[in-house]
Amino acid sequence: MLDYEKLISQKAKDMRPSGIRRFFDLAAEMPECISLGVGEPDFQTPWDIRDAAIHSLEVGRTKYTANAGLKELREEIGVWLQKRYGLHYDETEVLVTVGGSEAIDLAIRALVEPGDEVIIPEPCFVCYDPITTLTGGVPVPIATKEENDFRVTAEEIKAALSPRTKILVLGYPNNPTGAVLRHEDLEAIAEVLRDTNVIVLSDEIYSELTYGYRHESIASFPGMREHTIVVNGFSKTFSMTGWRLGYAAGPKPLIQAMTKIHQSCIMSAPTTSQYAAITALKDCDDDIEEMRRQYDLRRQYCVRKLNEMGLKTFEPKGAFYVFPDISILGLSSDEFCEALLKEKHVAIVPGNAFGASGEGFARISYAYSIDHLREAMKRIAEFVNEHKGE
Amino acid sequence: MDAMKLLHLLADDPRATVTDLADILGESEEEVAKTKDSLEAKKIICGYHTVINWDKTNIDHVDAFIGVSAKPERGTGYDKIAERIGKFPEVSSLYLTSGTSEFLLSINARTMREVADFVGEKLAPIDGVAATVTMFVLKKYKVNGVMLDMKAEIEDDRQLISA
User: Which of B19, B154, B161, B162 should one mutate to test binding to chain A, selecting the residue with the greatest count of A CBs within 10 A?
Assistant: First the structure.
């Protein structure tokens, strides 16, 4: 018998199982549970996009594309980034990837030497830290604060900088908090970074899901284009999570280095998805608007209900999550979420799954129908009432 | 309160009660009822209709679209003649359109005979109506945004929890 434990690399063994995974297993044992735990839209991919994919198959588009992705798609991405955020990238500065996740992986692998530091404002999406560690880099977390609406500040970044800092991750609009960075926040951060050698890995996957506020990319600030790899994709904006398609845009030498890694480990992103994505960028402005309208209604509903039941919740301006402070009951995030799951069969994700500073909070996704949300909020309110005063 | 939000909610679900709507919007029931009444009074909300597939019942039912060529009248254009056509209860929708004929109307009747009688005895004799083209509906696939009898899309096959 092979001793697999001895065969598996130390790096793989050292990867911590994500807190989300543990919760998934608990919830999966409870078939009647209703979930507010997803990180993906509930809407179906707009039909025009699916139709374009089907057409591409009918005419036989079933082969690899260029490593960096279809030229037409990369050009359309450039047009989109210009139109939406005032960014300027030609097709040689864009790389089409398997989801935003692959773009994050490539950016970190293309830049980080062992011992290099990657500044990661937390709470945040779960992959930055393990990928940094796998690459031999050192994650440097910044605990963002509730009193700042979970925005990372220029001062906090300045304090975290060291001669070994290679990357600053900016994941805004933020998963799990829904926080966004305002113009003045980005301006101040740009001021701190402009004269350094630090690259911003700007994960803007939720850029189209903002409410009463238009997303700005740090790459659009003077002098910051050279410092930034913009990561975005189709999953959230067009409700295309299962298509696995994202992209990176940035200075040509960085995109070329990322493309080298990409061509070895991926070859090229799924061809069908790439054809679908061209239609998404060209024809689906109305679909985005309609999804945003529905998310906004749900967002306002959840924020109000949670505050009414005594769970202090700041108003998130982006993504599709709310991040209530659940400490009022004296339970840890894990205890709160486990008890809620067992007693009321509602699955939400403990805030600490997104970094230590998420302790005391929980992530609630509102990518669900309003009827689903109403039932879930009713149950959470019952739970809070039953545990108050314990 | 924001009347547009109320309109969107009612467009999605006309059966939503005032209590439901008030809860979703965070408004009082009085405020929601008042706004709803006002939207109805202004004829912004013009009705709440049920989409029924009569083919699945044993009630006889025939639908037809009729193109109507007509001449406008001095002073009133097409409005007067439209009013005359629209008064007939068989007419469920009536539009002035561009293209080969002026009006397109849809009618709901019990039998083809009824449709023929309507066209021959009521519609064609109206002053100003020059010609009609009747198209009987053979099968309905989609009505008011609702797919009838077609394969439903998967409702929600997402993982329970994801990052």
Answer: B161
